[in-house]
Amino acid sequence: MTTFTRRNLLSVAAGAAAATTMPLSRPVRAATPPAGKQAAGWYRYKIGSIEVTVATDGVSRFKMAEDHVTNIKKDVVNAALAEVFMEKDMMTTPYNPIAINTGSKLAVIDTGTGESSYKKSNGTAGQFVTNLASAGVDRNAVDVVIISHYHGDHLNGLLMDDNSLTSPNAEFVVPAVEHQFWMDDGEMSRAPKGRIEGNFKNVRRVFNSEVLKRVKTYEWGKEVIPGVTAQGTPGHTPGHTSFVIASGSDAVYVQSDVTHVPFLFVRHPDWHAFYDQDGGTAEATRRKVYDMLVADRMRVQGFHYPFPSLAHVEKYGSGYREIPVIWNPAI
Ligand SMILES: [Zn+2]
Question: What's the gap in Å between 153 CA and the centre of ligand 1?
């Protein structure tokens, strides 16, 4: 009886390779060259009558710092990566903003790392507007850009590489609490040197006079545009915001960065990533949101979930687990 082993399979493959060197009786066709690049990354689904287009901004991969998870030893984090077949010491971070068409408004929620990061990352990030265009969504037609919080991977895409506006005909709606915090010079002067100070500087770079002219703040607990309600989910940043998109009897929770990558932080809600500004508050928020998602059986759209970043969640161990939705050939 033939057993399935990796070695058997490889020897079959070697035999097949040898067979192709035999003379062919039919005329030889030109070989099709490999495409050598990925297909456009977008996915579409509906929430009631609202159409959602997830257009990926790409992925970044980098070596994890010792304190990437501030309250957990790196070998424990590596064991969690091994559990999901991911490489040790390496962090893989997807970025997935969305566009929503409510019928009356074309809106974008978060903007990705920006066109300028396309070159810097050798094309692995900064893809949002090109993927959006591939999906037939013109950045010039966007009416509203909704921002969840003021980290560069959500904000920098407000500007193109030449600092012109990515969506020149849009209004930019931002969380009042977040705007107040990051634009406050007193908060900036008290900020710890390094990453937080750098974020204050980046916020001021992106919010140039052209951007500021179009900024409008929104409040938690209210509709940002019809069908999209803002919910305060602080901790990751002081004004961090999530959204419920609802239409008819259907709803999806856009969690922004309530958790970072699900394979670490949905499964381990008590782990504090270094980019959670207030780890304790972020953890409490995470548990509240995920308990609600489980109880309501509500789908979640997660910015740092693997593309297309739409999933169900369930309780798992002392945390939760994401179950990606199945790809739908029609919408
Ligand atoms: Zn983020």
Answer: 5
User: What are the tokens at 238?
Assistant: 């002081």
Looking up tokens 């998109």, which residue turns up? 245
The answer to whether the peptide bond before residue 308 is cis (omega within 30 degrees of 0) is yes
Per-residue pLDDT band for 27 (boundaries 50, 70, 90) equals confident
If you measure from the C-alpha of residue 273 to the centroid of ligand 1, how many angstroms do you get, rounded to a whole number? 11
Residue count of the chain = 331
- Measured distance CA(58)–CA(132) in Å, rounded: 12
Q: Are 266 and 255 in contact (CB under 8 A)?
A: no
| Ligand 1 center to 250 CA (angstroms) | 26
Mean pLDDT of 253-275: 97
Say which residues have a Cβ less than 8 Å from residue 321's Cβ, sequence separation at least 6.
Answer: 266, 267, 313, 314, 315
| Rounded Cα distance, 151 and 323, in Å | 27
What's the CA gap between 266 and 309, in Å, rounded? 13
Residue 231 pLDDT exceeds 90: yes
Give pLDDT tens digits for 276-326: 999 999 999 999 999 999 999 999 999 999 999 999 999 999 999 999 999
Calpha distance 226→102 (Å, rounded): 8
Separation of alpha carbons 260 and 328, rounded Å = 25
What's the whole-model pTM score?
0.93
What spacing in Å lies between the alpha carbon of 126 and ligand 1's midpoint?
A: 14
